[in-house]
Write a structure and sequence with these properties.
It is built from six helices and nine strands. The strands form two sheets. Strands 2-3-4-8-7-6-5 form a seven-stranded antiparallel sheet, with helices on both faces. A two-stranded antiparallel ribbon has the order 1-9. A hairpin with a 3-residue loop joins β7 and β8.
């Protein structure tokens, strides 16, 4: 019976990373899991669903990943542009990035964040292959945070492909300083 549960847990873990890698592939991204980091269960919550999570073996630090594809929204927008009815309005999905970042930070923190920093276009292109990107520090609410005190949120966008959210969950500045650099560029866009 123990063998069955071990096999089932391996299959479920493989399914999660496989689905996540398929989503990354669909949106032109690549994920490289840091060595000696393990997959952890995704926590269902009403603030921000995410696709995949990892942590360094036995450490009190977690990285959560959410990839939001834009392809279907872009397709609908392009179709609408060709046949837009008089007086109708639709926003280009590629122009929703700033609002999506603020809404996500407010959802996971329960209020608007105090500040966020955008990366210079050349730096976000060089380091992540993205068109836009930035970071926001959030004090997450309990349902999203679980047992973590802090969330360092990295957000990336590539036009027509996706918006990616990476949540670095920690209980101390020391843990952020130690583990964030190891996983900071684990998810990025292919060149």
């Amino acid at each position: 019976m123990l063998f069955f549960y071990l096999l089932l847990s391996l299959c479920l873990a493989t399914r999660d990373i496989t689905e996540f890698n398929q989503l990354a592939l669909r949106t032109g991204m690549v994920f490289t899991q840091p060595a000696r980091w393990e997959e952890v269960p995704v926590v269902k919550n009403s603030q921000m669903n995410y696709n995949y999570a990892i942590k360094p073996n036995g450490k009190d630090f977690e990285v959560r990943y959410r990839i939001q594809p834009l392809d279907e929204m872009v397709k609908k927008y392009q179709e609408w542009q060709k046949n837009k009815p008089p007086g109708s309005m639709m926003l280009d999905p590629n122009n929703l990035y700033a609002g999506m970042v603020m809404a996500t930070a407010a959802n996971i923190g329960g209020k608007m964040p105090a500040d966020g920093k955008s990366f210079p276009p050349d730096a976000v292109k060089r380091d992540f292959g993205a068109d836009k990107g930035g970071v926001t520090m959030v004090i997450p609410i309990k349902e999203f945070a679980q047992n973590y005190k802090y969330c360092f949120m990295l957000t990336l966008q590539k036009a027509d492909r996706s918006v990616a959210y990476i949540f670095f969950m920690a209980n101390s500045q020391e843990d952020l300083n130690t583990y964030l650099p190891v996983a900071f560029t684990a998810l990025k866009y292919k060149e």
